[in-house]
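Dear support,

We are seeing what looks like truncated structure output for some complexes. This example has five components. We would appreciate it if you could run it in full and send us the complete token output so we can diff it against ours.
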Amino acid sequence: MVEDDSWVPGAGLLKDYQDPGTPPGTLSAAEGETGPSRMIVVSYGADDVAVREWTDPSALDGLRGDGRIHWVHVIGLADVALVERLGTVFSLHPLALEDVLTLGQRPKAEPFDDTLFCIVQYLAYRRQSLEKTQLSLFLGAEFVVTFQPRADDLLAPIRDRLTQGRGRLRHKGAGYLAYAILDLVVDAAFPALEALGDQLDAIEEGILEKPDQEDIENLQCARRELLVLRQVLWPQREVMGRLAREEHELMPDDVRLYFRDCYDHAVQALEVSENFREMASGLLDIYLTSLSHRLNDVMKVLTIISTVFMPLSFLAGVYGMNFDRQQPLNMPELGWRYGYLGFWAVAIAGIASMLWMFRRKGWL
Amino acid sequence: MVEDDSWVPGAGLLKDYQDPGTPPGTLSAAEGETGPSRMIVVSYGADDVAVREWTDPSALDGLRGDGRIHWVHVIGLADVALVERLGTVFSLHPLALEDVLTLGQRPKAEPFDDTLFCIVQYLAYRRQSLEKTQLSLFLGAEFVVTFQPRADDLLAPIRDRLTQGRGRLRHKGAGYLAYAILDLVVDAAFPALEALGDQLDAIEEGILEKPDQEDIENLQCARRELLVLRQVLWPQREVMGRLAREEHELMPDDVRLYFRDCYDHAVQALEVSENFREMASGLLDIYLTSLSHRLNDVMKVLTIISTVFMPLSFLAGVYGMNFDRQQPLNMPELGWRYGYLGFWAVAIAGIASMLWMFRRKGWL
Amino acid sequence: MVEDDSWVPGAGLLKDYQDPGTPPGTLSAAEGETGPSRMIVVSYGADDVAVREWTDPSALDGLRGDGRIHWVHVIGLADVALVERLGTVFSLHPLALEDVLTLGQRPKAEPFDDTLFCIVQYLAYRRQSLEKTQLSLFLGAEFVVTFQPRADDLLAPIRDRLTQGRGRLRHKGAGYLAYAILDLVVDAAFPALEALGDQLDAIEEGILEKPDQEDIENLQCARRELLVLRQVLWPQREVMGRLAREEHELMPDDVRLYFRDCYDHAVQALEVSENFREMASGLLDIYLTSLSHRLNDVMKVLTIISTVFMPLSFLAGVYGMNFDRQQPLNMPELGWRYGYLGFWAVAIAGIASMLWMFRRKGWL
Amino acid sequence: MVEDDSWVPGAGLLKDYQDPGTPPGTLSAAEGETGPSRMIVVSYGADDVAVREWTDPSALDGLRGDGRIHWVHVIGLADVALVERLGTVFSLHPLALEDVLTLGQRPKAEPFDDTLFCIVQYLAYRRQSLEKTQLSLFLGAEFVVTFQPRADDLLAPIRDRLTQGRGRLRHKGAGYLAYAILDLVVDAAFPALEALGDQLDAIEEGILEKPDQEDIENLQCARRELLVLRQVLWPQREVMGRLAREEHELMPDDVRLYFRDCYDHAVQALEVSENFREMASGLLDIYLTSLSHRLNDVMKVLTIISTVFMPLSFLAGVYGMNFDRQQPLNMPELGWRYGYLGFWAVAIAGIASMLWMFRRKGWL
Amino acid sequence: MVEDDSWVPGAGLLKDYQDPGTPPGTLSAAEGETGPSRMIVVSYGADDVAVREWTDPSALDGLRGDGRIHWVHVIGLADVALVERLGTVFSLHPLALEDVLTLGQRPKAEPFDDTLFCIVQYLAYRRQSLEKTQLSLFLGAEFVVTFQPRADDLLAPIRDRLTQGRGRLRHKGAGYLAYAILDLVVDAAFPALEALGDQLDAIEEGILEKPDQEDIENLQCARRELLVLRQVLWPQREVMGRLAREEHELMPDDVRLYFRDCYDHAVQALEVSENFREMASGLLDIYLTSLSHRLNDVMKVLTIISTVFMPLSFLAGVYGMNFDRQQPLNMPELGWRYGYLGFWAVAIAGIASMLWMFRRKGWL
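Here is the complete output from our reference environment:
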């Protein structure tokens, strides 16, 4: 579970940052991102829906103002020109675009003049560790623009619901689409939490069976992931709370009602992660007591052995002494007919009484 | 107390959840629920009361508007059609109905257009562990609709009070009925807390008598249950606080007064559970010091034995040496008349002085 | 200090509670209370004062409205009829009366129509443990009604001040009387805290001199009492804060000023108890380090003994071997003239150098 | 650092208190104070200043209303008559005067009709321990009255600034004088914190060099002082915050600006003390790991000695056996020419290989 | 990492302070600062920019009011006359100037009449430890004045951006310049956090490989630096929050938008430092369990050795006894033909069965 090179203390905790002193709003490709970006445009009204994948953003100019809702989803954050072009077409604020291109952002919701800008983190538990994928969303009057780094298309389920015309999605405007997307991200935390719970379960089983140093490293690893989790879930809860509470012209009242539900889920995910943290520290307690127990067990064995054999060895040593047997008082036992048998009788009686005492003390 | 398969870290902490991306308001049978639902309808005014158990919800249509108060209690959450039908008859919001069918919800109180929707968790300590049963309640102008999963009918005591016409219940409207139900749920926490207190008591006794690994597992188990408890009691307190504080047209002022009482109980239950948590961590301290004590005891025995017999064994070894006694300076003690007796005198004096020293040090 | 049967984890933490489902406002005798109640009535104005002890509450009817202030103090909570009668005479709310008869209530102040209702807990440190006695108080325009369970009369000092006509008490109305009573209860915490501080002091002394398991049980006991203390002092502070802050027609401004003083005392009592909790957990640290120290000491003795005598025993064993001395190379030392003296010289030199080394290491 | 009789757990934590039931506003000499009080009166305007030391408070009557500002500083809290006389002259509230005469008060600022009343604690680190001296201050339109218990005159530096006419002090009214006094008290915390920091430093050094039980007692002592510190600094910060924030007729806006500075200092002192608390608990961690290390070291020595000499002693024991050498298979080694040398060769090889193994394990 | 003389507990935690009683607004050279100060004046408009380094502040008089923005950056805090002169020219408040000359201030933002005054701390990780450099900033209508102690010029990157005319900096007024400077300081925390993360990483690696006392000292050192970090980052976050939230005439709305971004970064830096603190305490846990493990390992070796050789030594001792073999029952084994071989057979069988048992127990 612990891979040496990926296990940096700050990994996942520290966001990418630009050199201090860089002018704000300077756009540059997100760290680690390369290659061209994909741009998937979904235009829909109550009666029709069109999904197109474009590479040239200039086709976007004609779109706005035709009464339909346009959702532009960009996958890949290396094509700065595309991001700038989208910024111009939809009047997105440069500071927000800078945040889009800086990974590891804290979830937040911020109103700009005509748009509402949200950043959230999509959590997934893959390849034995927690991964977070940054999703940025701009909500305007008749459009939604979303960005994600190169990876699997996170929002495919939403697109499927749009094309299949299921539910309220096609009828309720851009705000409801934004809700659907954010709801997906919030709910994605639950399978991740479940996986993390299973991991804690496995560690606990390991500790109860046979505690070793590896368990403690896995536990430390899980605690680190819980820190990352909290760092994401705490502000995410706040984002949903703000969207559910604060009135905004782009967010009609009936959509705000749905965000209330979303907020509940965010709170619950956060609570579960906090409880996992308590459980993780409980596991450490089990671990330490378990080590203490084992030490006690080891020491009992040592003490029993010593207590039994030290007096006996002394006795054997006594009868191995070379006192001059010419003197009548020197070691007369050695000459007795049943001396040797007597020695064994004493030895066996000694062992038996010791063992009986230890059993009474509960050491056996 | 610890059964292997039921003891999953996340058990009771994580709520059931739908696959991320599922459209909101999609109703499906609650996890683990099967079979038909029971529906018990109580219609009452000041002077009359009727209790009927129906299976066909269509009979409900005729009920509303006859000036009496109708309370529909549904047991079992697998019959989605019934839930939907009730939703239509009483205009319940689809998001709320989705919550009804998802178990493990966080307690909450939410106003929808014409109804007030509450979710609470009924706590009970059965078969050595804490169980929570989700109870959902819709309060309307002249009706109350409640849902619980398949289990014993939780609300039978309320129905009994209604049919026996005791107290204010028959005279004070739907809001008071809702209060009576929620009050029952809040007060159910006290017997559960008492049982948990007994469990902690048993663990403490075990630890003080003879600490073993099983105690620590039981303690961990109890701490987990306290986490679940807190997860329920904390928001439940908030729910009662809101109902006592916030004005709502469905909740007349004199009923709000009763909720203040209910809020006090919820606060008290929460405080007790927080104190139990502190006590549980105090038990861990006792446990660890107890282990330390035992280790000290074991080591003292070992040290006493070694300190007594190691020098004596050395002495016996000395007189077992084979130096050539032809040389007058080699081991003359062996030829002395009282050599052997002298050896024993030294040995016994050594043992005695050691024991005296240990007694003075307080090791005996 | 620890008596087996009284030392239940939940003792003092959990309030008495009625069976869930009991209709609110159902009056029944408080748990553990029996026998008749005493009722002491003090009627006073600026110029006269009368103290009477009645058993029949019907005499109360004529009292109200004569321009004097009436203080009814009831000792004993088993006489439900008396409580109900008082409720009728002074128009006390049934929910409040139910709280009066349920012991272990959380301190609170609640306005009802014409009365202000307070519950506080009188703390006292008696027979080696902290006891709390519930005092309920109703403040009306011209009356004060107080209740306490059967025990010593807690409010005798106030009655003495009234009859002796000292201070402002006779001139300032019912609100000031209520203040005097609550101030007495708040200040009672200080002697109790002092006693608890002495107890912690005794435990500390015990731990520093010779830590044993009993100390830790006493400490656990004290921590439990600190939990009870906090459970009382925290809401009591809030009660005083509300009375000092919130305007109420029964509480004139100049009396509110006095409650500000009372609030200060409540805050201070709470702070002291919080600091005691920190000190108690500091004692646990001392205890654990002390155990560790002792283990180290024990192990040093064992190690010193073993290190000194194991090599010597080996040497004695060597010269006890029976190699055939016909062969010239076999154990020639045994035939040397000063062999035995040499052996002792080596042994003593070994012991001395070991001891010197241990002294240098600081183990002696 | 630890003196037996002064080291009571509650010392410095619990305030003095009057017997519960004492009427409020009852003045009695402060605990531990005896002898006559000094009264130093400074009267000043922009152009003149007069310092007089009076014993008879009746001379105060003529003072008020001459357009100058009068500062009365009382040292010693046993002369109740003087305090009452001052109360009459300057219309000070009896409740406030009671607080003046009760030592160990929580810092607070309270407005009374025409005066502003503050209590603060002057901290000093003297004779190896933290001392707090209670300073009470009444601010009126044209006067300031201050009280301190018998000790060095705390406010001499302010009087010096007044007589030397330095700075703004002579020109800015009574509010600025009050600021100067409170600022002095707030800043006095910094040298005390520095001394406490030095003490922690000394403890740390002691622990790192050679941890013994005394260090832990000193540490416990320092933690106790940090508790006292927090108990003072936390409300003191609040006092300054209120004075800087809340408008009051006696406190002109430009003086409030100075209190903002004072508030900053109070916050900083509090933060430093909180950080010291974290450091103190860090020292405990170092201490415990240090003990653990030493135990490990001791046990390694024991184990190395045992592992080396137990097998060798066994071997020596074998060749000390008395099997009948007539039988050719019994112990032929004893008759070999190089038997004894072989024994030593085996012994030395055994020791060497053991030591080599221990070195590889890092135990040496 | 730990240098003796620089490692004072309070170092970096306690601010410099003046003697209590010093009149406020008394200017004196900052502690540790000597020599002349540098003063770099940048005057710019949209079209031109001039950078001059002056030593005589009187040249500043002619500057104000020419429609350009003037930024005066002072390096070195020993030249009190210069600071006073600047105070006169730009009407800076004496209390603020006193703060400028007192190092170790808590970050804060305070409005004075015509200026906005901020203090922040520039963090850098140099020579194995965290350093903070105090930067003070006055923002006026058409000027910015900044101060830093003698060190590398922290604000060179801003001056470069100004002279190169990049970005919005030349066009957006003094408020934007202040933003650029504060943003630089906030972002400087990230490289420092990264370095601290690397340090924690190194400590963790050390602990996992071979825990020794030095690791724990380094860890303690890192925890101390995290305390300093928190002491800076917490109020810095607040400063940015105030600037982003509160309206101020010197701070136009579009600049406030940029401060929102700055606030986000400050929050993130704080969160990372809090998580580092949790990780540091997790490292302590690893360390302690690791010590426990090692102790267990050592004790197992000791116990195995003792358990194997003590019984064998006893057996060898038995056959080294000198019972008189004339008596037929005394030690007949010694005379058996295969006695010696039998002894070895028993010994080897004993060792083998012991080892097998230990392997089964998992001790090998």
